[in-house]
Amino acid sequence: MGWKIEAQIALGFGILVGSMNGVGGATNRMNETLVPLTFQPLPLGSITPLGWLKDQLTLEASGLAGHEHDFYNYVVHSTWLGGTQEYSALREGFPYWFNGLVPLAYSLSDSRLLDQVHSAADYVLDNQQEDGWLGPEQGTERNFWGRMPFCLGLMQLAQADKEYEGKVVSALWRFSGLMNSMLRDNFTGYHYHEGDQVGQGDEQWGRVRVQDMLITLQWLYETHPTGNMTQLMENMDLLIQGSLNWAEWYNTATYITKDLNTVPVSVTEPHFAYEHGVNIGQGLKALAVFRRVTHNDSLVQTSKNAVDWTFQYHGAASGAILADERLAGLSPYYGSETCTLVETMYSLSYLYQALGDSSYADRCEKTAFNAFPVQLTPDWWARQYVSQPNQPYSENLTETPFWNVNDWGQTYGLETDYPCCTVNHPQGYPKFLSNSYVKVNETGLAHALLSPGVAAIGDTIVKCETAYPFGNTLIYTITSRESFDFYVRVPSWAEASSTSISLNSSTSTVKPDSHTGLHKIAIPSGSTIVTYAISNLAIVQEKRANDTVAIHHGALIYALNIPSTNTSLAPKSYSNNSPLPSGYAPPESRDWIITPTSTWAYAIDPSTLTFHSVNGTDTSLANPIFAPGAAPMYITAKACEIEWGMYKGVPDAPPTGGNRKCKGNKTTEIRLEPLGGAKLHLVDLPVLDLGGIA
Ligand SMILES: *[C@@H]1O[C@H](CO)[C@@H](O)[C@H](O)[C@H]1NC(C)=O
Ligand SMILES: *[C@@H]1O[C@H](CO)[C@@H](O)[C@H](O)[C@H]1NC(C)=O
Ligand SMILES: *[C@@H]1O[C@H](CO)[C@@H](O)[C@H](O)[C@H]1NC(C)=O
Ligand SMILES: *[C@@H]1O[C@H](CO)[C@@H](O)[C@H](O)[C@H]1NC(C)=O
Ligand SMILES: *[C@@H]1O[C@H](CO)[C@@H](O)[C@H](O)[C@H]1NC(C)=O
Ligand SMILES: *[C@@H]1O[C@H](CO)[C@@H](O)[C@H](O)[C@H]1NC(C)=O
Ligand SMILES: *[C@@H]1O[C@H](CO)[C@@H](O)[C@H](O)[C@H]1NC(C)=O
Ligand SMILES: *[C@@H]1O[C@H](CO)[C@@H](O)[C@H](O)[C@H]1NC(C)=O
Ligand SMILES: *[C@@H]1O[C@H](CO)[C@@H](O)[C@H](O)[C@H]1NC(C)=O
Prior knowledge:
Elements: H1 3-8, H2 14-17, E1 39-41, E2 47-49, H3 51-62, H4 68-71, H5 73-76, H6 93-108, H7 111-126, H8 147-160, H9 162-184, H10 203-208, H11 211-223, H12 229-241, H13 265-268, H14 272-275, H15 277-283, H16 286-294, H17 298-314, E3 323-324, E4 326-327, E5 336-337, H18 338-355, H19 358-371, E6 383-384, E7 386-387, E8 390-391, E9 412-413, H20 420-424, H21 428-434, E10 437-440, E11 444-447, E12 453-457, E13 460-466, E14 473-480, E15 484-489, E16 500-503, E17 506-509, E18 518-523, E19 526-533, E20 540-544, E21 548-553, E22 556-561, E23 564-569, E24 591-596, E25 602-613, E26 633-641, E27 646-647, E28 650-651, E29 668-674, E30 681-682, E31 685-686
Parallel strand pairs: 11-15
Antiparallel strand pairs: 1-10, 2-12, 3-4, 5-7, 6-9, 8-30, 10-11, 12-13, 13-14, 14-19, 15-18, 16-17, 16-19, 20-21, 21-22, 21-31, 22-29, 22-30, 23-24, 25-26, 26-29, 27-28
The protein binds 2-acetamido-2-deoxy-beta-D-glucopyranose (9 copies).
The site of one 2-acetamido-2-deoxy-beta-D-glucopyranose has 6 residues, from β19.
């Protein structure tokens, strides 16, 4: 996701690079505080998974993510670990992996993965350069970007493990000193200078993703104020001053609400970095991160616009941003990149913590329970590069509707299209888990992202057992030496008037705060059982383009699950699609072609949608849960087959008006399933009134 962009676009970034000679303005910012987060994250390791989430993390650990350190060139033979293998001059493969494996290893206390992250951290920290640089680069090779995910990994490691805390903190302070001299030296390593090995296009990546550096610096500033604090604050100021600032883009005068495929790239070129899918996923949190430093409260609304506009104009119903490298529109054939999804989830969980607005948590759950899991095979050994809302097959296409994703891009594989999603997908669920509970002020605790898991802080232990989102009852077993306030988030789709909390034997309905969505429960000292029953009986139809609907029930999206058959091939090299040397990857790593075994071109009659629950029980779920037919509920609808044209090798937007009609005079019943398991699917379903047809 770096060089391929550079190769595609003429380098016309002169106006952005500009001249920034008067760097600095070292105003005295000693003793300045950062704008506090509304909710504080718990240190990594405080939350352990249960239920389906533990199953998913365990599959992740025993799948591709947990084996990359055994064989994957861009991890184990990365230049960061003394090797020679990088997929781009940005050298981001190892940092992405580290950022995801640290929380995976600690969430599961998996000793094999802990050994991997410890040996990797030891190597990089022991090889920190004399001048403080973290990583292998010298001179003109140096660019801050690769440090950003690596430092996020270090921050998590220091939180989770006292043995690493001192070592990490001192390494970060040394790095901060070097960063200051580089930034003061005309933004070296940040802005492009003639002769830099990271080219003029890729150089923008560090500037548009800099919030990911600031998060670590802010953590250091607030929790380990043992170095030159003025200098650290100056670094934060300079990084923001030299950034590509998302406030320029999320502005009514600039923002493009149209399908970007109808707007020539040359017209949008000065804004290209803001149109790149992964940048957007990462950048949704940028202005909330900047605000902590600048104290500019207008950024609260700009952050809201950023998220709302992105999904309104360029989002799928599943919580995916549609950007097959470049931001697209609402058509159901565009792709969403796996990397973009994990970054979106992390940004949304951060935004909820920073700003307290419950819409971010609702959206985070939507992406985490729907868009993300469908892009992985049930066993977590292969990932897609992009997925499409309407995707009735997953194969090498003859032609693609994508801006810059190749004809293998919507297949599941080891590194189809590009390696970034191989190394970056691991962070998705581990970070969802580690952000699922948050601190509220000094002594409160909130369940922010609903899912099964245990939070332990001090003497307080909150254990949540639930099938949510596959069930709507959450049972908390709480033990605490002191009384404290516990909060549960009430999702926006819940019917609050019939959603209840039972504390031992007394039951009441919830009264969520209108901004945070939190309902407060006073927990006495000792042991308490809280039962949180979310009421939601409704099937919700979300109107999508061209007389289509996406079907929601609770936190899940239901899609037509298209029966399929599959074949697999040895994993291919992303660069030329020829097979990688045999023995390179473990035998479980395969590239897949999945083909439908039935027709998929259906229109549904939404008045016939009916919800079915296979099991009354709420807690026992299949493992893997994100596989065809695995979820204990489904929705049926009356449907008929329609003529449906093609566009660039994939189903077009469906026909509308009089062109939408049943083939023959017959209907059938179709089955919609939670999207995460429905690898071949239609999410945006054409509607038809089938009242007159049997
Ligand atoms: C600073 O860097 C810019 C490019 O970012 C360059 O145009 C300018 O000449 C440099 N200034 C100095 C004093 O080196
Ligand atoms: C701390 O950093 C500031 C700003 O870079 C610098 O002026 C000052 O000399 C530094 N203080 C120490 C004790 O190094
Ligand atoms: C605050 O940020 C906005 C961008 O959202 C900018 O237009 C405004 O000038 C900033 N205000 C200050 C005081 O810096
Ligand atoms: C709706 O259909 C029209 C006509 O086929 C097509 O041009 C347009 O792109 C479709 N809109 C979306 C968002 O798919
Ligand atoms: C897709 O890949 C398979 C296996 O390599 C090959 O047999 C087939 O011809 C390819 N199809 C297209 C359309 O390229
Ligand atoms: C946290 O404390 C602040 C300041 O005292 C207060 O305004 C806020 O309402 C508290 N938050 C909650 C959720 O109680
Ligand atoms: C609630 O139930 C638990 C477990 O049965 C019991 O230990 C505890 O004393 C009860 N708490 C209150 C406040 O009734
Ligand atoms: C391929 O099909 C088998 C048998 O149905 C199934 O177990 C497996 O999960 C499928 N693989 C993928 C990648 O969907
Ligand atoms: C239904 O519940 C039973 C136990 O009551 C369990 O064994 C089974 O796996 C459940 N089925 C599904 C599809 O969840």
